Amino acid sequence: MTKSDRRHLLEAHLRWFINLRWITGVVVCLAGTVDRFAFKWYADSLLILCVGVGILIYNAILFAALRIPKTSLLRLAVVQMLLDLACVALLVGWTGG
């Protein structure tokens, strides 16, 4: 597998994760909103909504960065993983595990 093939494969996977993250951001926003106004299960439902909005914002930035031709894809992959892990950690902490 050539370097160009590996780059194309990594770019395709990053694009796939970005597409999935749009869905995730919307679902987290909906969950935070529904909990805040209907269920009231969590005291931190506004913070959950903020995480959903944050996911959508950083996903838009990652989407734009992926379109820049000279972007380091490996670095972009690491940034995506760290941001996603931070969001998961916040959501797990605020929802009680």
Report on this structure.
- Helix 2 (45-66) runs antiparallel to helix 3 (73-95).
- Helices cover 85% and strands 0% of the residues.
- The protein contains three helices and no strands.
- The model has no long low-confidence stretch (mean pLDDT 93).
- The protein is mainly α and 97 residues long.
- The longest helix is centred in the first third of the chain and has 37 residues, at 3-39.
Classification by helices and strands: mainly alpha
Instruction: Report the end-to-end length measured between terminal Cα atoms.
Output: 41 Å
Low-confidence stretches: none
Q: Main sheet? A: none
What's the alpha carbon Rg, rounded to whole Å? 16 Å
Compute the number of strand runs. Answer: 0
Write the H/E string, N to C.
Answer: HHH
Overall average pLDDT: 93
| Oligomerization | single chain
Which geometry do the CA atoms define?
A: elongated
Strand content range: under 5%
**Helix residue percentage:** over 70%
The total of helices stands at 3
TL;DR of this structure?
This protein is mainly α and 97 residues long. The chain is built from three helices and no strands.
